[in-house]
């Protein structure tokens, strides 16, 4: 995740430098550079699964959907049992424990604590 995020930020900065002409309003190329990714995200939003961690943190009623999505993301068949299914359940339990635990600043687990 961090590599893809850092790469996206790098390419956004690079694109900004290459397209920068220091003028206002932006030209059609600059407008397309913003509109095309935004439109693609809006159009594909229905195809993107919800985050299993988010689903589990909302309520226990969403845990079945979270398990199905997590298995799909991990490449595990939905009907799988045994060690792989147990690993998914443990991961969901971890997500739920994190959601229920009080926020501790600088606990080394969050994206904003500087440990990432």
Average predicted local confidence, pLDDT: 77
Distance between the termini: 10 Å
The Rg value, from CA coordinates, equals 20 Å
Q: How many separate helices? A: 5
Run of helices and strands: HHHHH
- The helix/strand class is mainly alpha
Structure summary, number of beta strands:
0
Helix content: 55-70%
Give the strand content.
under 5%
What would the principal axes of the Cα set say about the shape? elongated
The low-confidence runs, each spanning 5 or more residues with pLDDT under 50, are 111-116
Report the biggest beta sheet as strand number plus sense, adding barrel if it closes. none
Indicate how many domains the architecture comprises. 2
Tell me what the structure shows.
The protein is elongated. Mean pLDDT is 77; it is low at 111-116. By secondary structure, it is an all-alpha fold. Helices cover 62% and strands 0% of the residues. It has 2 domains: 2-20 and 29-47, no CATH class; 52-100, no CATH class. The chain contains 5 helices and no strands. This is Major facilitator superfamily (MFS) profile domain-containing protein. InterPro entries: MFS_trans_sf.
